[in-house]
Design brief:
By secondary structure, the protein is of the alpha/beta class. It has two domains: about 130 residues, 3-Layer(aba) Sandwich (Rossmann fold); about 110 residues, Rossmann fold, CATH 3.40.50. It contains eleven helices and nine strands. The strands form two sheets. Strands 4-3-1-2-9 form a five-stranded parallel sheet, with helices on both faces. It has a four-stranded parallel sheet with strand order 6-5-7-8, sandwiched between helices. The protein is globular, with a radius of gyration of 17 Å. The structure holds D-glutamic acid. The site of D-glutamic acid (DGL) has 16 residues, from helix 3.
Length: about 260
């Protein structure tokens, strides 16, 4: 079984893609909505939360963990890998590498949370893959709030997305990296706001392919369980509405 988690519903963008690529895999998704958003928290706090959730998922039978959250990956990927060294752990890192390969202007924009930009992972990704390009980094906590409340289209969303996207365009960015899993749901608005010259990179397909490559025992029942640490009913409704994910199984409780 594959255990997937995020602070909230952002990771459903990854879950949806895993289901598309691995329809028979058994999946357990935890949305830690009681403690969302993670972005304004300290890296130490998010690390402790991620280790706790990792333990919970492993206790319930996960044989692969997918950290479907850039912030938790920035804070805890190394610690998760050393604590649960018997299983593969797939994490998120901002897609600077493909962005650097695709930019014509030499400027790329990364939209993520403040905590993601503070982590060493971001610094290391930029120094490994961003040489020769200018990286415009923008923290967009209000985008997380929008998505978490189920708003991904309409005038308010367009207004909120416009500021950071227009600033990045004014700085000549021609590629936008979605460095927060919540932002995949805003990809159409970001693309529309940025205009035809902006390429938007959504990492979900690549993360799902990586999961398919490394998961040793993904299961074969195609089962899906969605668990929220706050409000399971709301999570189920948002998952159906936003990601077309219908949960056939009764949720478990977190924590329990
Ligand atoms: N989905 C998250 C990420 O990828 C977390 C957003 C948040 O909780 O602030 O970074």
């Amino acid at each position: 079984m594959i255990g997937v988690f995020d602070s909230g519903i952002g990771g459903l963008s990854i879950l949806r893609e895993i289901r598309r690529q691995m329809p028979d895999a058994d999946l357990l998704y935890l949305a830690d909505q009681a403690r969302a958003p993670y972005g304004p928290r300290s890296l130490e706090e998010v690390e402790a939360i991620a280790l706790e959730i990792g333990g919970w998922l492993v206790d319930r039978g996960a044989t692969t963990l997918v950290v479907a959250c850039n912030t938790a990956s920035a804070a805890a990927l190394e610690s998760l890998r050393s604590r649960f060294d018997q299983i593969p752990i797939v994490g998120m890192e901002p897609a600077v590498k493909p962005a650097a390969a695709q930019t014509a202007s030499g400027v790329i924009a990364v939209f993520a949370t403040a905590a993601t930009f503070q982590g060493r992972l971001f610094e290391s990704v930029v120094s490994r893959h961003g040489t020769g390009v200018r990286v415009v980094a923008r923290a967009c906590p209000e985008w997380v709030e929008l998505v978490e409340s189920g708003s991904v289209a309409g005038p308010e969303v367009e207004r909120t997305v416009k500021g950071p996207v227009s600033e990045a365009r004014a700085e000549m960015a021609d590629v936008a990296v979605l460095g927060c899993t919540h932002f995949s749901f805003l990809a159409p608005v970001i693309a529309q706001t940025g205009g035809p010259g902006l390429v938007v990179i959504d990492p979900a397909p690549a993360v799902a392919s990586q999961t398919a490559r490394v998961a040793p025992d993904p299961g074969d029942g195609g089962s899906l369980r969605l668990v929220s640490s706050a409000d399971p009913g709301r999570l189920t409704a948002l998952a159906a509405e936003m990601a077309g994910v219908i949960t056939p199984l009764e949720p478990w409780e977190y924590p329990s």
